[in-house]
Amino acid sequence: MTRETGTKGGRWQLMVLLLTGLLGACREEQPPLVGSSSQVRFSQEAVAFPATYVGVSRQGELRVVSTGRSPIRVTWNAPQEPFWVEGLPERVGPSEEPLVKVRFTPSGPGAFSATLVGTDEGGRTVTLRLSGEGRPVPPCPTPVACRRFTFDAVREQCVEEVLEEGTACDPGNACVLDAVCQQGHCKGRERVCDDGNACTTDVCSPLDGCQAVPAPPCPGDGACQEGWCDPRQGCQLRPAPNGTFCGEARGCDLAEVCVEGACVKRNPPDGFVCAPASPCQGEGRCQGSTCVRPEATALVPDWTYDAAAEDRKLHDLLVGPTGDVTLAGFFEKPVLDAAGDSPVHAQVTGRRCMLWNERLLCMDLPQQGQVSLMERATGAPRWTFNLARARPDIAERSSTIFLARLAVMAPDRLAALFEAYPVGQDSRTLCRLYYLVVLDAAGGMVSAQAMEDPLLSECNHPHPFGLASDTAGDLYVTFSPTVNSGAPLSAGAPTLVMAFSSDGVPRWRRTLLFPGGELGLVRGLLIPEGGAEPLRTSDGEPVGTLPLKLGRAVATREVLVPSPEGATVNPDGVPPASPRLQGYAVPGLTPAWTYQLPAGASFTSKELRLGTWPEGGVRRTMVLGFAAEGARPALVGVRTGDGSEAFRCELGYTPRTVPQLFELGPGTLTLMDGATTCGECDPPFADSRARFQRFTLPGLEPAKEPWPGTFGGPGHDHHEDAVHAAP
């Protein structure tokens, strides 16, 4: 028993030793369990952050969970930027669930990923996958004075903020000094200009600062006391030259004339001036009892530019205050001072140019969606404004942006009306978007807004056929559907009239039943080209009805003169006979006078201009128009004071068409004819190759009047002037 028992015990000991050796060998050869799943894990396997903008943080939360029975220590390998992790525990117990915060803050656009790795004391790992997308921050609109835009990532939009009171700002006006922000507007003190000369008018140009220009003539006192200016004392009086007319009698047997400062009746001597000169006829002088005048001569051009011969699409002209002539066309290179010795051809194309602050302002120059101010003499740009760059939010809604109209609101305010196709559509669409932008004298954006109305939402190519402002700087625009596609555009009905304050705030709107057209303004009256009812600028209500369409009316502050009665172009391009002009008192619109051409003569053009002509030492304001008397047109001057004829001068050239457009300069008249497309469309005469001619007429000057129209007139400035010339 003892032997057997001992033998069995020895065998068990041997087996234990063998098993122990094998287990020891296994421990030496088996590698550690690195990489195996830990008893520690995250409450979720991955965190995918929503797309976020560069520099903006997104945050998330999750918990660390342990499935073990005792606490476990963990060493963490934190991820690199743009991911951050806060709250990782060094030790995790079975009843603990520490809260961990993860954050994603992209430093640039693109996709990002990383892995958070933790290793416990047994060499086992726990992982968390992190991912996110960085988006570029959208550009915000260009800030206007006293406001700024910041991007709100939560609302995902640019937010406008008013700058703090007293913040220094740029008013965009050289005539405003020490400007600071006041209730969201840039205001300062007015710059005072004084050159010490009482015979000049000291003015301040928003672009150029102080300037001195000749002062208006000093007024006289009575019939024979004329005014003159002393540089130190200002206006003075002195006797008018002997022989100056001072009464109604102007015959060669009896005339009322000034003698030593008094108005007396005299029997004038031979050679006495008994009739004033006209542009085509010298003054009359007495020979006995007869007033003898030289024969009238035809007016002939001293300069001609034929765009058809040059194969250039030029069909618009501007005449500057010094007489320089600019020719322009629909996406053509303007010709600056074309009538000068060395014309300047602009290097880039534009369309629809006008004069503003002594410079040339062009739409879509040098490319669509831009407005540029250029020096008249050289074509060098002073500034350029691009709506898409200034307002990227507008650009995102529009596939193409271009200019529709421009209008002066004040020397330091310009209205630019932009047109666009809705995003995803091209030029074949008849849907349109419109944006009204107000710019300062330096081209800085004052405000911008989308124009909205049910009429504008219809896809019939609504178009602004008229845009003008009044003496207060308030703005008026007429929209109408178009009856054709492709320029030039013809207006249909109805017409939407919209009014805005000088800072772009909507005031009122009306819908009228006639087709749209240009706009005019005079003394609180809005003059729509296509209608017969002037509207009050205060509320848009009609003010009486005239017996004829207003057309391209002109106005002094005393009288409104519509286009010649019936002078609208027929479909065959020939205007009907229009033998008369009618003047209406302003603002009551009662008939003031009627001018009638001689039998057989008729007005041939709807275009009128206001000019002044010297008569008996006084400059009289005239309505100028063109009439047909035989084969050649005649320039007709009618006094605005009483409707009497001042002169009628034949033009000595062979017409291609009726005179289609003309402008006045100092001692000149520049005329356009030969255009082949519609003049009542927009843009007028687009793509025509017209002929331009200048006539030298010493003594004829543009009138300083509130010319009310938006196309034509001094510089096409689209702004009612408050200056009043003699009737």
TrEMBL record:
Origin: domain of life: Bacteria
Signal peptide stretch: none
Region listing for Disordered, in residue ranges: 702-727
UniProt biased composition (Basic and acidic residues): 715-727
Name the UniProt record assigns to this protein: Tenascin-X
